[in-house]
User: Which sequence fits this backbone?
């Protein structure tokens, strides 16, 4: 594994019966960079995200993570408590459907403060202040801090999920179609928010998306997947402007220009 | 030639073809054995008929298009780095520090004001200094102050291109690639760009550009490089 | 006393099983230990867990006190006391100071307990996270991994909504700095008594089939925030009968014209004080 890489995967393989989800996939991620994994349904991109984040076990292959002290750890050999703690601190996971990662019956402030409280924060006033600060970072009004997420729009829920994820300053965030299902204007705002947060906070991210424009806007590097294999990888502008693999050319040519 | 003049960019037998899988694997060779050297403080203009591969060559030099053969040496951090064989990370580093590129069209990012778009491309400056420099460049390119806080999505083509130019020049990269920089500009703004290129040359920047306007070419280019079309123009 | 039952109703093997569970519980303070809860001659919800624990530890020489909401004379307490009188023949008492085993529903006696005493709590719901997380598999994982953020979220929400934590009974506590525990529906007022108590505290939940324990001199802290510390709440009155101002009070409605009387919930505590000559403002009215 290279000196600097934050996350490194080798030979990941996963089949569901006869269906290949991942076939000998390698991936690397450096600190502060965004890697987009694109492909259509069934490409294996979501499987890759789940295997990289330790949520699913691969049938073969290894995922190495470098912790803040520089030590390497095999993500799938970690004990459960360690992996869960990692997901609550140094890592984040933004789901496509924000409701999967939010407590709908708990106020926005409580949702954002939960990870802080899980790490031992015990001062109500400070937890609330920090929650309000993060709500501000994701452009949610401070006066919504005591509102229930039930009253939030789709875009706001997604931004709330992001605040909840970022509150512990994770170095690595996994994102699964973060703008999927949102109205176009809402998407634009959210994309810009993600872009500036990632740049400002120096977060590394693995971003799964089927939308090439999202990849172009957010990602430094891109991996194109088809039926479980990585067919092409490189800098985002390289792969999207000079696609060499047949499938990549098909994807790129299929994007409608507004 | 004095030995103080250093080559900033040099290609060796650069090859580039396109294989169109969607058209049954049709192979279109565009560049073959391109040998091009550009020194610091020099401006080389790429010429040739439309479709000859001028833009392809420029993009290949930036690493945007991937070469099929040959080398692209760029003087980066004191050493010559081969862009064609470099890892993606190295290309990113070279682009950040050494290679600047002004495309033909501004790729619009939602919601970010023109001033920010330019300031963010500055290198080695504090945020305030970057914004001050960005403002100066935009004004030099005749983008009035009232437009600086607006996102360029609603600007005219010419205005967007001027934002693009400001973003390309603010970085102070030692090598600057310009793809039809003035295609959508009027005479007055063309003259501004000429001035910017001449100033860059005085700063020892190596400039490689595609200029459709002969007069402009006359004003800035030290040399011409003719890109030979490999296919008959269809 | 030949009732045809084994001493204290349960057979000896069952008592061994319960004692093993108790030993495990004592070894891991605050941790819920599953046990093979037996069919008892009273329905779930009436103290079957507490009874099984008491039956497993009680000996012929023990002196048993049974209280329900602090009182020795309510139906529940009377029934259970008679049950043990019939099946074990143990000496019953209403005096806290004289008891060696005290079985209680929803109160801790006011009189501080001693090292030679055991307090057995009746527990309806042993899982402190039950209202916040409906999956028992998930709550077990949370206890195993010490992931108690959810409970703090609940306290946070209370403070947001009401300005203070709104839990009045069964206030969650951290035992020995490791396990989150439900102390049973004792009033929050009683929580501090659990901390470093010299007596052994055993908790039995019959329907849920769990036993847990707080060994003597164990740290028990009620959850709170640094800037919203746990507060004792009691009605701001003196006991009408004995005049106590520091005991937990019951409110007794006297008539349909709003007449009320506040009396010590702990009947033994009140009687002892009155026997010592203390009198409250309503001492005559209650006669």
Assistant:
């Amino acid at each position: 594994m290279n000196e600097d890489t934050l996350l490194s995967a080798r030979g990941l393989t996963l089949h569901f019966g006869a269906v290949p989800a991942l076939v000998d996939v390698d991936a690397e991620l450096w600190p502060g960079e965004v890697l987009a994994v694109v492909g259509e349904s069934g490409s294996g991109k979501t499987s890759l995200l789940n295997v990289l984040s330790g949520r699913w076990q691969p049938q073969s292959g290894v995922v190495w993570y470098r912790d803040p002290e520089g030590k390497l750890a095999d993500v799938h050999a970690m004990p459960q408590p360690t992996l869960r703690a990692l997901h609550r601190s140094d890592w984040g996971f933004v789901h496509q459907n924000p409701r999967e990662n939010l407590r709908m019956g708990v106020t926005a402030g409580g949702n954002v403060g939960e990870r802080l409280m899980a790490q031992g924060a015990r001062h109500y006033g400070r937890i609330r202040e920090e929650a309000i600060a993060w709500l501000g970072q994701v452009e949610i009004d401070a006066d919504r801090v005591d509102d229930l997420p039930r009253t939030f729009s789709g875009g706001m829920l997604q931004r709330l999920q992001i605040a909840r994820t970022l509150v512990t300053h994770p170095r690595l965030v996994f994102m699964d179609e973060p703008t999927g299902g949102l109205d176009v204007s809402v998407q634009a705002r959210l994309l810009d928010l993600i872009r500036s947060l990632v740049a400002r906070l120096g977060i590394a991210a693995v971003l799964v998306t089927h939308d090439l424009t999202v990849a172009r806007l957010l990602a430094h590097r891109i991996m194109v997947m088809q039926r479980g294999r990585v067919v092409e990888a490189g800098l985002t502008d390289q792969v999207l402007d000079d696609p060499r693999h047949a499938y990549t050319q098909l994807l790129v040519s299929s994007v409608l220009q507004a | 030639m004095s030995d103080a003049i250093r080559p900033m960019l040099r290609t060796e037998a650069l090859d580039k073809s396109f294989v169109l899988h969607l058209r049954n694997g049709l192979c279109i060779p565009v560049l073959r054995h391109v040998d091009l050297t550009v020194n610091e403080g020099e401006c080389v203009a790429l010429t040739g008929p439309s479709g000859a591969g001028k833009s392809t060559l420029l993009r290949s030099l930036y690493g945007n298009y991937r070469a099929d053969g040959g080398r692209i040496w760029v003087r980066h951090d004191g050493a010559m780095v081969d862009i064609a064989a470099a890892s993606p990370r190295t290309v990113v580093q070279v682009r950040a520090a050494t290679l600047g590129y002004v495309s033909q069209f501004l790729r619009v990012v939602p919601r970010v004001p023109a001033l920010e778009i330019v300031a963010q491309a500055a290198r080695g400056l504090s945020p305030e200094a970057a914004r001050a420099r960005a403002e100066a460049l935009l004004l030099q390119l005749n983008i009035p102050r009232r437009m600086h806080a607006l996102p360029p999505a609603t600007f005219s083509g010419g205005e967007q291109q001027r934002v693009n130019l400001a973003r390309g020049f603010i970085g102070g990269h030692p090598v600057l690639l310009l793809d039809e920089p003035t295609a959508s500009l009027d005479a007055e703004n063309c003259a501004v760009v000429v001035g910017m290129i001449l100033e860059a040359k005085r700063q020892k920047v190596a400039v490689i550009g595609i200029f459709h306007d002969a007069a402009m070419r006359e004003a800035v280019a030290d040399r011409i490089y003719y890109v030979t079309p490999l296919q008959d123009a269809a | 006393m030949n009732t045809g039952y084994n001493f204290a109703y349960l057979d000896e093997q069952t008592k061994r099983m319960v004692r093993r569970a108790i030993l495990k519980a004592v070894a891991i303070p605050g941790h819920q230990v599953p046990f093979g809860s037996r069919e008892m001659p009273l329905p779930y919800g009436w103290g079957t867990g507490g009874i099984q624990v008491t039956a497993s530890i009680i000996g012929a020489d023990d002196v048993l006190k049974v209280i329900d909401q602090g009182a020795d004379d309510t139906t529940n307490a009377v029934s259970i006391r008679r049950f043990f009188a019939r099946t074990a023949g143990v000496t019953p008492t209403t005096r806290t100071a004289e008891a060696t085993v005290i079985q209680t529903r929803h109160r801790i006696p006011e009189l501080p307990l001693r090292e030679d005493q055991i307090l057995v709590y009746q527990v309806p719901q042993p899982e402190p996270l039950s209202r916040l997380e409906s999956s028992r598999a998930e709550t077990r994982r949370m206890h195993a991994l010490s992931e108690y953020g959810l409970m703090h979220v609940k306290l946070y929400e209370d403070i947001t909504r009401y300005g203070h934590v709104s839990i009045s009974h069964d206030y969650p506590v951290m035992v020995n700095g490791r396990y989150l525990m439900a102390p049973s529906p004792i009033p929050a007022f009683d929580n501090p008594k659990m901390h470093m108590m010299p007596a052994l505290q055993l908790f039995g939940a019959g329907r849920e089939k769990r036993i847990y324990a707080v060994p003597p001199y164990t740290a028990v802290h009620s959850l709170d925030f640094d800037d919203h510390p746990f507060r004792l709440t009691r009605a701001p009155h003196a006991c009408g009968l004995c005049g106590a101002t520091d005991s937990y009070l019951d409110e007794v409605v006297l008539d349909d014209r709003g007449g009320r009387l506040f009396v010590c919930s702990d009947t033994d505590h009140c009687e002892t004080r009155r026997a010592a000559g203390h009198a409250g403002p309503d001492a005559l009215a209650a006669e």
Notes: The longest helix of chain C spans residues 12-27. Chain C has a mean pLDDT of 94. The longest strand of chain C covers residues 63-68. The interface with chain A takes residues 144-145, 147-150, 152-153, 156-157, 159-161, 225-228 of chain C (CB under 8 Å).
